[in-house]
Structures
1.
Amino acid sequence: ASRFNALKADAAWQKVWEDRATFAARDDSPKPKSYVLEMFPYPSGKIHMGHVRNYTMGDVLARFRRMQGMEVLHPMGWDAFGMPAENAAMERGVHPGGWTYENIATMRAQLKRLGFALDWTRELATCDPAYYGHEQALFLDLYAAGLVYRKESAVNWDPVDMTVLANEQVIDGRGWRSGALVERRKLSQWFLKITDFADELLDGLGSLEKWPDKVRLMQENWIGKSVGLQFRFVLNLPSRLREGSGEGLSSTQTPEHSLPQPLPQAGGEQSVEVFTTRPDTIFGASFVAVAADHPIAQGLADNPQVAAFIARCKQGGTTAAELETQEKLGFDTGLTATHPFDPTWQLPVYIANFVLMDYGTGAVFGVPAHDQRDLDFARKYDLPVTRVVGDGDRTDPLFEGNEAYTGPGALVNSRFLDGMDIDAAKRAVIGRAEAEGWGHGTTVWRLRDWGVSRQRYWGTPIPIVHCDDCGAVAVPADQLPVVLPEDVSFDIPGNPLDRHPTWKHVDCPACGKPARRETDTLDTFVDSSWYFIRFASQPQDKPFDKAVAESWLPVAQYIGGVEHAILHLLYARFWTRALRHIGKLDVAEPFAGLFTQGMVTHETYKSASGKWLSPEEVRDGTEIATGEAITLGRIEKMSKSKKNTVDPTGIVDQYGADAVRWFMLSDSPPERDLQWSESGIEGAWRFVQRLWRLFDAVEPAEGQDKALDRKLHQTIAGVAGDIEALQFNKAVAKLYELVSAIEKAAPSASRTAAIRALVRIVAPMTPHIAEEAWAAMGAEGLIADALWPEVDPALLVEDEVTIAIQVNGKLRDTLTIPRGMAREAVEAAALASPNVLRVLDGKPPRKVIVVPDRLVNLVA
Ligand code: ANZ
Ligand code: ZN
């Protein structure tokens, strides 16, 4: 028997597929259509094992759908704009475009080596004007429809480099290059009105049955619909302050319990509106807090202490995580707020850094016992902490410890609310507020509009011109695309578009006077919000053809990393709905099925001196270079920082594409992490060789092997079901079993048929060896165009069963009998069992109970 020469077969079949455009999807096909898509890669330099795993899974499904007779769209492209290209430009003086296209060439070649059934005729790169020009047109369509607007918004400002930083460039509140403390600055920026679709995006989640529950939940939380109470606190200036001369504002002010007077215009405000989702906790309130940008804080800013505090609040980045973990800071304004249910109860009013201006009303009341931020704040400033929701048998007002109680319970220490559960108490408070006219129930959304402006070069230029007379003017359609200038420099920080000598100087499209181009570019998430539509249809003169795109969409199965569970998927869902809103595409949800795969992990190694070592630097527990013993670190996601990556291309060169693909599918359930190991890939390689020994030796033979026939048909059906459910590791296990059964079977017509069918069953997973065997067996056409073997349902059922024989309920024997054997025959067989005869001791049983195909119980 010959050996399977994987490298030769890989190259030969990949060339055939390419030459014949085997995987080019036909828009006009009469077959049912299926769109299989994996998240397109960022061209960072080389493909990594995570890509290999992701694309292998998608490929198995795509090939399987073809075998089911479907017209499959399985495209590939490049999410090619983004910061790493600019970083490379800054660090190495290369042009971002050159760097990107070189990476694309490398990675395309690497992907091709894996034999993916991709339609390369539809390849696209988002940094190509032929792509982003259409994106600009769509942006302007949304602008015309009122779904795009401009407003002031905070950015991360690096005061040393004098540049705007992306969130990723802010590390522990400091600029990644300069190390300077980052400030929040306001800039005029472009926004997409995703909040107009908040309700739809939330409701739509209900229809996404083929999405993981956890992703739907993450989206739901991100959209964050909350129902609550909005109401006004009356503000007062305590008498001591009003009377005191020059005492000003103090940060140690404690509330006065004398009846307060309404505020005479301090800071210009007499009341403060707050929003709460927990009106039930109103009797646990111990302070009121406003955002640093709130009019009350701003109105007090002529006091230098307040101004200094507001400035301090603006330090630090803009990410939610950063805001969450920042130290809580407060400034006591000296004002007090009257409790809505008790005119004698005054709450101190603080300016606090954890209150955001653009959520709710920018002001809150704090309930430390039942909100963690409030508790951190109250402990720091020594404010009262009163329990108002019972926690099991803890119902007393005194709340100890530093962990807020946010669970369920009955209201306590809360006057007329006592004894109610949280929901009833919420309703009661909202009811009183509405009846008494000081507040009303409302809905708020956590979702913000999508800020798409980036002050960067390597992105889609926003197609707007600013004119002193006409304002923001859309670039006319016949002047699209607005192309990025090539001649840019990265030697100084900031946006090269803004610094470019000529690019931004244009005439106003409306009045013809000198005007300026917008120099912001679009967030790269815009690029990935519609690429799947462009894959489905890519005419030259417009972004897509409606009917053609609709014939493919929605994507039947989308596969990618869970790190995109929120933003990318939400933005793509929004973009799709926005296009539907303006009549461009009648699709509600872009991705009918979603699967998020696990990561590829590897052991980590550390040298005696504590450096990370790559797998190539280690042999038999020692560092090759020094001969010193290494320490084994944890098994972690492959990453450059831990040096535990394995380059897929080297592995493909060594073992062939099929072995790599097989290993990617075999060891773990696809949603879990897969640990890369040398022994794993070797095992996969041996399996491929085992397949070849069967394929290579197949010969006509006589005779039937019923057991093998059954095994084969069960495998055909089982593997189909597993692929359908994306449970590839289960399919792999079934194939191991079938191969073992074939290996053990004596030559027969059944065995020969099983080997021929096996070629087709493994084809989605190991397509190269399958093509090779298919051709060697003289079959017609390509296996890539073959159909999935048919299942004989009669062979799916076992025709023998093993039943239990009990005497007085105790197991005495088992019998293997034909399925569905008649009761009398089963009874006779049981009575003939030597074990049963011995236990019955020659006496006939008093009663015989037969459960067909399961058991016989003899009562003695
Ligand atoms: C009193 C209270 C008591 C609250 C309690 C929570 C727990 P979600 O559910 O995310 O919508 N909040 C309101 N506006 C805020 C703002 N601009 N900045 C920071 N926090 C703000 O959160 C709503 C809750 O977040 C509101 O309910 C409010 O605190 C706070 F035991 O009011 B709560
Ligand atoms: Zn003008």
Note: Confidence is low (pLDDT under 50) at residues 242-248, 250-267.
2.
Amino acid sequence: FLPHLVASLERVDQTYIMVKPDGVQRGLVGEIISRFEKKGFKLTGLKLFQCTKELAEEHYKDLKGKSFFPGLIEYITSGPVVCMAWEGVGVVASARKLIGVTNPLEAEPGTIRGDLAIQKGRNVIHGSDSPESGKREVALWFKEGELVEWEPALVPWLIE
Ligand code: UDP
Ligand code: MG
């Protein structure tokens, strides 16, 4: 199975997932990590972190100018967040499905936002929206030594 595995590893993407301050305050960290773990993706970075205004503004720079931007920056910096980097084939799009749409009232039951949140401004989790954003955001939130390369023992049971 090795050549196939190596070929599939070449298509591996990374995504930046973050439990927002409301998720941390509400004790949802374990529940949220668990959903990605169970799906089978590989965790390569994990930390509890107090985000600065500068970092929040850089992360959300595409939304600068929106009416909700100041509130969003205040929200993201209002308490610790849990930063995660996850790797896998198709991980970016799959994580967005697990997360659900931005407005939790419209998010499907079974998704993280659909099950655990009510408002856009308190929607408990962030997930990168493309492989390019995934790369950019993982590099923005993690220093090089904070990411770990490892081979999960379960790989042959998850990838044929
Ligand atoms: N947001 C908000 N009001 C809006 C749109 C977005 O408060 O009308 C917040 C919300 O927390 C969202 C974040 O801004 O998760 C980033 O917006 P984006 O459109 O990128 O949504 P996401 O990719 O997180 O689903
Ligand atoms: Mg987004």
Note: The pocket of uridine-5'-diphosphate (ligand 1) is lined by residues 63, 68, 72, 102, 120-121, 123, 126, 129 (CB under 6 Å).
